[in-house]
Amino acid sequence: MFERLREDINSVFDRDPAARNAFEIVITYPGLHAVLLHRAAHALWLHGYKLPARMLSNVARLFTGIEIHPGAQIGRRFFIDHGMGVVIGETAVIGDDCTLYHGVTLGGTSWQKGKRHPTLGRDVVVGAGAKVLGPIDIGEGARIGSNAVVVKSVPRSGTVVGVPGRVIESSTDPTSQRRADTAKRIGFDAYGAVRDAPDPVANAINRMLDHIHIMDRRMEAMSRALEEHGITRHFEHLDDLDGCGIDPVLPDSGQSKQAYTNTTGMAESE
Q1: Cis peptide leading into 248, omega within 30 of 0?
Q2: Interhelix angle for 30-46 vs 2-15, to 10°?
Q3: CB 171 within 8 A of CB 152
């Protein structure tokens, strides 16, 4: 028991720079209190004392703001930073060295009995406000960004952001091992945020713009070559697309397209 307590205290020192001494951690850290009370409640649950286990978990929630079902399985050196609003469901499984921040939910998506909560591998970090829902697997070393909503399994060393959660980095990325080594050298990624992780939407748009730019240059070169050989007539090359627009949606009144375009001053030929 004292060995486990020593591990828990050391894990706080490793992951929270605000921690000053062991006495302060034992007295003032609600995440540590919740984990210690959960171990007692889980032991009662395994021995068939379901009601006392639930009552003890409710006492822990009252004093810490952290709700951990006594049936949840939690590994060693588990750390909950700040902790308020954390919810961990009955069939959740959490591996060793995992870190959760405030507002995290490891919840279920089904009313059917059986496995309905997520399984977290070793060294997983879940950022503040993130929701991990359903009987999914979060691979070892994964990082889940703050406020992400994860409903699909995450590969080993994957990084997830957004709503719904998107994997923006995984172990198949050739740079992932380098980043993992760097993370171990300088410390874990606080709040599940990778320092150089791009916005997945912005990244997708930028890739599309790059592709369009290349295609436009190739089309321009082809068009000029065809003009020089007299295959096609000359046409004005567009420098930009400022004059282009999207046709308005026709009203529901049944007005014809010809009438509608005439009333808006737009020629049908356009």
Answers
A1: no
A2: 140
A3: no
pLDDT at 181: 55
Sequence-separated (6 or more) residues with CB below 8 Å from residue 168: 159, 160, 161, 197, 198, 200, 203
* Cβ(89)–Cβ(116) below 8 Å: yes
Cβ contacts of 35 within 8 Å, gap of 6 or more: 8, 68, 74, 78, 80
3-state secondary structure 235-256: CCCCCCCCCCCCCCCCCCCCCC
Amino acid at 254: G
How many degrees, rounded to 5, is the angle at CA 241 between CA 239 and CA 246? Answer: 165
Q: Tell me the whole-structure pTM to 2 decimals.
A: 0.63
The two beta strands, 79-80 and 99-100, are parallel
Q: Which residue has the higher pLDDT, 100 or 204?
A: 100
- Give the residue-averaged pLDDT of 75-88: 91
Q: What residue type is assigned to position 129 of the chain?
A: G
Structure tokens at 147: 């406020």
- For 162-227, the three-class secondary structure string (H helix, E strand, C coil) is CCCCEEEECCCCCCHHHHHHHHHHHCCCHHHCCCCCCCHHHHHHHHHHHHHHHHHHHHHHHHHHHH
Q: Is-contact 134 110, C-beta < 8 A?
A: yes
Residue 151 has pLDDT above 70, yes or no: yes
**Model pLDDT for residues 229-267, shown as the tens digit of each residue:** 877 766 565 555 555 444 544 555 444 444 444 444 444
Return the amino acid letter for 223: S
Domains and CATH numbers, the chain: 2-196 (2.160.10.10), 202-263 (no CATH)
